[in-house]
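Entry:
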Amino acid sequence: MSVRAYIFSIAAALFVLLVVVSLLRQRKLRERHAIWWLAAGALALLAGAFPESLTWAARATGIELPVNLVFFVSITILFLVSLQHSAELTRLESKTRDLAETVALLELRVGELGGETADCADRGEPRHDGGSGAER
């Protein structure tokens, strides 16, 4: 590995880690979403600082070229990020549906109460809140 490639890989990994930490500090990224990006940055920093570890890991896993291990790990991390986002999206859709149903039921109930109040006012009966129907 050339010195330029060595420096570039370490700088790129540090840049990724700094961006993730900066987004976390600005509260633009939540911790549960940053885990995989921090793991990817840490692995990139490890592979950049110790390129022999990448060769060792490739041999240990039976992968011929270390760069193929990098692609495999990168795709795996992206798959996990996508899976996490899909799970989060599913949870949010369910929560949105529950909230919409709750709001619809509340609107129906408010409409019914408004109808009861209007009926009471038409008949001159007192409202359920203690006021008279004529006050409306």
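Residues 66-123 form the longest helix (58 residues).
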